[in-house]
Every structure is written in structure tokens, then in C-alpha cells.
Write a structure and sequence with these properties.
Blueprint: H1 2-37, H2 40-51, H3 59-74, E1 79-91, E2 97-102, E3 106-109, E4 112-114, E5 126-133, H4 136-147, E6 151-154, H5 165-170, H6 174-184, E7 190-194, E8 220-223, H7 225-237, E9 242-246, E10 250-264, E11 269-279, H8 289-309, E12 315-322, H9 330-341, E13 345-351, E14 359-363, H10 368-376, H11 378-381, E15 407-413, H12 418-421, H13 434-454
């Protein structure tokens, strides 16, 4: 009896050791292939430079759809198809104008851009006194008397003490999203919002805003962080300062577009689906390289790496290029609706939407067993710099899958430089480091490999 127990124990240890060794070897192959023969940067260059900005409803977005479909077909994925979705169609129009008009200093140009979804001022522009506030409480304290007929200037900076810069972003972005309607409730005629940037910069950051129902719509422009500081200083010196703004934005009728989907069919459990994805749309000021061309090409590269290595997954691996994350989330919602309608079984979804920077880890599922399983793989991933598994959650586009019980995971690269480029004209291919991008693709492929082999239950 004792001999049988000892033999069984030694066999279990031997099998476990073999499995770990096998996994280590496979993960090394993935990283070796990505770093020596990876295609992520090559794909991203093509998407960023030859397709360019891809705002929902625009010709650029349509070109991005065709690029994605053609790329995945040429790579020989088992299936590639388009999933129709209607998306918002907002256009920026002519370049915006911003001017500080001071009795003491004269006219000073300020770099501004319309926030996504803003109405326009018209060709006559808007000129009015400026009132600076840091938050909605300060705004409400002014009351209608202090706000009516004015331009409200929201000047709350991202908290620089947050090591995770997304924490600083989360603490400031409400003024961008809701500032126009909150100010309009008290009679403001327009708003300026300090850009969501980590540093002092000359260029403004755009981003989505939304109008509350039954509240007058007023123009909403972002001002660069450096010029926000300049405007604030002028207001300290001169209380009756005025500001001139002009933009020609408008929202057109919803436009037809598509999510783009490619997959490799599973050999043992083809009805169990693992999704990797990013959002294909981008803002119109730059090339959408980090946000989120990087996530798109990394997702495609996961499947390409498996094919290149001759790895046949047990489960179906699906790459999804979601449309309209930036100003509507229509693609993510549509994908989840279709998954539910078809009764598809998604066991995991991994989203890359934090830029193509050096990998640090992954956010983990909220369900206890899946969370424990992902964290148990840290020893296998840690040699590649993937050590942060402390945060929970997934991403915006895969979020609508949560009610279906899908384990949501987010790729977690270093965040320190992301908000230098986020939603700006600086989000271009030259800001992406090839090696960091390829490391991210390999990181996602390694995690998909482990989920495919072991599952999350």
C-alpha cells in the first residue's frame, strides 16, 4: 500500500514538473518568435501611417475595417468576418480657435480642440468672461448669478502623485465628460476643460463628452495643460478677462460600420471561445497608434504567433477589432448582444487598450476561482516582466460580456507615458517602441496559451 502511494506521489510530481517545463518551453518559444520575427510593429506602421486616424463614421474608420479584414485573411485565419454595427458620426470641422483677450497683455493664442460630441460655436464664435473652477461643487456654489452668460473653465489637473496614471485620469475626467451639461444647467454659454494630460504640454487632448437630456447644449473645448496654467495665471491678474473660442463641430446621422473578427477554431473544445481584442476606431487628431492601434495589432499577432509556431489551440481563439469605443461603445455592445443571441460560450476575454508600452502584468477576473487561476501562473510569466496581477477588471469593449459570466482580463503595460499621447495629435507611430510592442503581443499570447491549455475553472 505504501509503495503504491509513493509511486503515485512520485508520478504526480513528475507529471507536474513535466507540465511546468513544457509550459516554460512554450512560453519561451512565443517570446522568442515575437522578438525575433514579430509582425506587430510592421502591422501597426501600416495601420497608423497608411490608414491613419479612424474616428467612427469616417472614411478612415471604413479603411481601417478593410485593412483589418484583409490582414487577417492574408494571415490565413480559419474564419474572418464583419459584424455590422451603427455608430455615431461626429465631425470636427475646421481647426478650432482659442484666444485669451486681456486688457493688460493683449490677445494671447491658446491651443484648444473640440471635445468629441461637442456642438459648434458657428463662424461668429463665442466671446465671454471666464470663470475658473476646480470641481462641480465650486461650480454649484457660484449659482446661476455667477455662471449665467459666462464661459466656465474647468481646471482640475490629473493627480501627479498617483503612480498608476489611470488613477489620476479617473480622478479628473468627470469634468470632461459632464462639465458642459453641469455648467449649462446654471446658464453658462460654453466650457473650457483642462486637457487630461500628465505633464505640461502645448497640445490639447480631445476625448468624449456627453450632454445630459433636457439640458441646453453648449460648446465644449479642451485647452492644453500649459495654456490652462497660462489662462489661470491671467485670471489671477485680471478678473474681468474674456476668452474667444470658435469651433465648427457637428453630429451627423448614425453611420454603418463593422466590428472585424478573425478566429482559429479549437481542436477539442471549439465551442469555448477566448477573445483577444482592441478598438479599431481612434480620435481624429493623430494616427491612433497607441490608442488603440497597438491593441488591435497585438490581438491579431496572438493568433499569428500560434499559427507560426504550429500550435493548434484546444479552444477557439478569436481576435476582435471593436468599432466605436471612443464615443459610444457601440461595437462592444453589439458584440455582446450577438454572442448572447447565438448562445456562444466565451470563457475569457482579454483587452489591450492601454498603449503599446512595456508589459507589467494583467488585470484579473473578479470571480474568485478564475482570479486565483490567473495569479497562479505568475511564476511562469514573471521572467518576462509580468509581475503585476493586483488589479481586477477588464476593459470597456469586453465589459458588456460580463453579464454572460465571461472572465474579463486587461493587458497591463507601464502607464507613465500613456497620457502624454492619449487623444492627441502626438499619438503617432514614432511614439511606439517596436520591442515594447512585440513584448506586449507575446505577453498576451502566453496568457492565452495558458487559458487555452488549462481553462479558468
Amino acid at each position: 500500500m505504501m509503495k503504491t502511494f509513493i509511486f503515485s506521489f512520485l508520478l504526480l510530481v513528475s507529471l507536474t514538473t513535466f507540465s511546468q517545463t513544457s509550459d516554460e518551453a512554450m512560453i519561451k518559444q512565443i517570446f522568442d518568435q515575437a522578438l525575433s520575427k514579430g509582425k506587430s510593429y510592421e502591422m501597426l506602421y501600416d495601420l497608423s501611417v497608411n490608414v491613419g486616424p479612424r474616428l467612427s463614421g469616417s472614411p478612415g474608420a471604413a479603411a481601417g475595417v478593410e485593412w483589418s479584414r484583409n490582414e487577417m485573411k492574408q494571415l490565413g485565419f480559419d474564419s474572418v468576418w464583419l459584424q455590422p454595427v451603427m455608430v455615431p458620426h461626429w465631425v470636427r470641422g475646421e481647426k478650432e480657435i482659442g484666444r485669451i483677450i486681456s486688457k493688460r497683455a493683449g490677445t494671447v493664442t491658446a491651443n484648444v480642440c473640440a471635445l468629441g460630441g461637442s456642438i459648434g460655436t458657428g463662424s461668429s464664435g463665442i466671446s465671454a468672461s471666464v470663470i475658473e473652477v476646480k470641481n462641480f461643487d465650486e461650480l454649484k456654489a457660484l449659482g446661476t448669478k455667477g455662471v449665467q452668460g459666462k464661459i466656465i473653465f474647468f481646471n482640475r489637473a490629473m493627480d501627479p502623485t498617483k503612480i498608476n496614471t489611470f488613477g489620476g485620469y479617473g480622478g479628473a475626467v468627470d469634468q470632461r465628460a459632464n462639465g458642459a451639461s453641469e455648467a449649462a444647467k446654471l446658464g453658462a454659454i460654453a466650457v473650457l476643460v483642462r486637457s487630461m494630460g500628465s505633464n505640461l504640454e502645448d497640445y490639447p487632448h480631445t476625448g468624449g463628452m456627453r450632454y445630459a437630456p433636457n439640458v441646453p447644449k453648449i460648446p465644449a473645448l479642451a485647452i492644453s495643460t500649459r495654456h490652462a496654467e497660462l489662462l489661470s495665471q491671467h485670471l489671477k491678474d485680471e478678473k474681468d478677462l474674456t476668452f474667444y473660442m470658435e469651433n465648427h463641430s457637428e453630429t451627423l446621422e448614425d453611420a454603418p460600420s463593422f466590428n472585424v473578427i478573425g478566429e482559429i477554431k479549437g481542436s477539442e473544445f471549439p465551442n469555448e471561445i477566448i477573445v483577444v481584442g482592441g478598438h479599431l476606431d481612434s480620435w481624429d487628431l493623430g494616427q491612433g497608434a497607441h490608442d488603440d492601434g497597438a491593441g488591435c495589432v497585438q490581438s491579431i499577432e496572438v493568433l499569428r504567433l500560434f499559427k507560426q509556431l504550429g500550435y493548434q489551440p484546444k479552444r477557439t481563439i478569436r481576435a476582435v477589432m471593436f468599432m466605436n469605443e471612443e464615443n459610444g461603445l457601440r461595437g462592444g455592445i453589439k458584440y455582446a448582444e450577438e454572442a448572447e443571441r447565438k448562445k456562444e460560450k466565451h470563457i475569457a476575454a482579454i483587452e489591450s487598450d492601454r498603449g503599446g508600452f512595456v508589459p507589467r502584468g494583467f488585470t484579473v477576473p473578479t470571480e474568485a476561482k478564475a482570479k486565483e487561476r490567473v495569479r497562479s501562473w505568475k511564476p511562469l510569466l514573471d521572467p518576462y516582466g509580468l509581475s503585476d496581477f493586483s488589479q481586477e477588471g477588464g476593459g470597456a469593449d469586453i465589459g458588456p460580456l460580463a453579464p454572460q459570466g465571461v472572465a474579463l482580463i486587461g493587458f497591463l503595460p507601464d502607464s507613465q507615458r500613456y497620457f502624454d499621447y492619449h487623444h492627441t495629435g502626438e499619438d503617432t507611430i514614432d511614439k511606439v517602441n517596436k520591442r515594447e510592442l512585440e513584448l506586449g503581443s507575446a505577453s498576451m499570447a502566453a496568457l492565452v496559451y495558458l487559458i487555452d491549455k488549462y481553462g479558468l475553472k
